Queue: 2 jobs
Job 1
Amino acid sequence: MKANARHHGKVTVVDLSGKITIGEGDIKLRQAVNSILDEGRKNVILNLGGVSYMDSAGIGELVACYKRAREKGAALKLLNPNGKVQDLLILTKLQEIFDIYRDEREALASF
Amino acid sequence: MGRNVRLRLESRIVYVDLVHEMTEGLARRMGFAKPMALNIGLAVREAVINAIKHGNGMDASKRIEVSFEQDDGLFRVRVRDQGPGFDWTHTSNPLDRENIFRTSGRGIFFMKHFVDRVEFQRRRGQGTEVVLEKKFEQAGRAGRGGEVIKRRKG
């Protein structure tokens, strides 16, 4: 899994690619989000467009990131979950929890 | 492929990807469409994670055994651990409102969603075996197993 952060004013977009699974992807996701939150940034978008699938550990880490962001007074939103990732968000009912966007400009403007 | 394939591995998380990829590959060779092969791979992946984490307690000296069988219209995968066993009967529903924000507890839920049958069996003094089964649903694409189903339905 790869994670690349880019800043748009007060918003940080993290482009994720590969798979978010136990042992590597989940840890990289945690590190990427922790690093952004530790910098004091409050508006985070995880761009899932390049993520092929997640397992239960990956889904769990996504929830953990959401909770950590809230604890730090930040907001974490999702962009472009595709295919299997979207299926998993629907299956776990997490699509009811997360703010999910299809369009990056719309996501950026939502903060 | 042959009718049966068996793997015996140390309890290390690095092997989860290996088993997942092998499961998907075998499912594809049996004739499952790509999305279904991924589902089966994800289910087996969760069973292997369970076996390593909760069955064998991350003890690398304990082994997990994964066997793949093509059997009369079914793809069956068995995942065995050597641990003291874990209580699969008291898993909470991850869809309950109070569990939505939990960061764990979705593995068995995924297994049950992605294949047709999941069965846990405690083997006296020998750990736990999880059996996962997926039926060939599209006879025309399912290879030998599918032909069996087609004949029976016909």
Job 2
Amino acid sequence: MRSAAARERRVGARAERMEGRAPKKRRGGRLLSAYAVFVYAFLYAPIAILVLFSFNRARQTAVWEGWTLEWYRNLAQNDLILSAVKNSLIVGIGATAIATVLGTLVALALGRYAFPGEGFTRGLLYLPVIIPEIVLGAALVTFFGVLAFRLSLTTVVIAHVVFCVSYVAIVVRARLAGFDRSLEEASLDLGARPLATFLRVTLPLITPGIVAGALLSFTISIDDYVITSFVAGVGATTLPLQIYSMLKVGVTPEVNAVSTLLLAVTVVLIVIAQKLQQAPIERGETS
Amino acid sequence: MKASSGEPRGRAGVWLALPTWAALGLFFLLPLFILFVISFGQRDTYGGLKPIADFGAYLASGKFLANYARSLHPIYLQIFWRSVWMAVVTTLVCLLVSFPIAYYIAVAAPVRRRNLLLGLVVVPFWTSFLIRTYAWMFILRTEGLLNRLLLATGVTHQPLELLYNNFAVLIGLIYGELPFMILPLYASLEKLDLSLLEASADLGAPRRSTFWRVTAPMTMPGIVAGIILVFVPSLGQFIVSDLLGGAKTILAGNLIQNQFAIARNRPFGSAVAFELTAAVLALLFLYALYTKKKGQDVLL
């Protein structure tokens, strides 16, 4: 666990080294490039096939019979899917809102203060990400059972907050480490109160990190199956639970269509989150 | 560990961390603790918990260890063994497949394409594991695409049973975990000082020994991180084995889920969950020792 200042020095040194480095020559040659094409194909072909066949007219899904949007139209009339989408949105937005507040505050604590229990806090944030999902699901359903807490959408939101806080904290913490504390110190030296410094200097600088953390948190929330399957009550079926029960019954074009939609939403959110995380620090200062 | 001189000290940090302590203490640590306690109990005939009249007698009888003793039965040991070897194979294959790709992105690819190539690994890293597993179900099933291809090209004359076996589970695991290996390897390779490789080559070292003596040791933090990031989730895997595996490919994750959802023997399920957790924590402890020795950056 290094201090932020030490890390900043190292990052600075690395940036200098990279600038000084001559443009890289191509290394490894064609064999490596060909291999790369092969691995990227392996990563994307299964997803591409799934997406493609969601537009396939054939019900017997392995034969291509031409394009159709019929399966997407079916989804729009499927009450189970629609209610699952609604539940997923409620859970995703609710859990993300709570996790973003908690995660940002704890990231500020870790990034800007020395306080008793820092090491414990880091460990506490790592564990929910690292402990097998199945264990977390089992623990939460047992806990709710012991407390006679009825399983519902609320229990799903609680469970999702537990694993989303860590992601927000990690992303915001990385953002905090990425800029110099001297900006905040200058503000304080010039007489601004700590709260004003936070609102006018720190917050604008870390906003891209907060938004990126929130988007990632929303993504993992709407994608989660394992933990949700333990803690979802009757009527709290989320989209992944609905997809799971559909494909347990049989592979249908509707499953492909709903999977494609979920993929599309998450990919868009991830790309935005990535761009925000790479956003230069200067951009934050203009606001 | 003390933070740098620049960090203000005092209670502000505590106040900022307090909501998270409360939330994770109540809804994470406490549930884990309850799960641990219940793993020493016994279920009643309705799937609930059997009340214990006399704690002293219960402890003295040794019955509190019954669930753990049961988990050592050969049937369950076989499941644990399968979970371990499948996780090992997955990790090794991911490492072998990922290293050249991470090297390609970090070193060999044209600089202007590097961000795109990296982004293309990051996207599957975050997208739904369920859907990515389902994609393989769609491809491998008997009426699926791969079988049609094999039939059409005359490789086989009748559809093969490609799903519901070890092979399908391994494919799903490798496919699902691959991005989790590529990214930490990339992070290490990207920091690699290429002039060291040039120096090694200039001094006449053959490529192979440059790799084993310079590249591999210098990227070891990434290799170790990747191994942890792939091995740990593979060990606790549930979705892949449930969807792509058959009755003979039950893993530890499926066993736990089964005890909670179907067999309704929560104490036994809790005991297995704790054995899994203990294994994971032991690995993470070793990892923490390793990173401490290396003085390597941690995420938070």
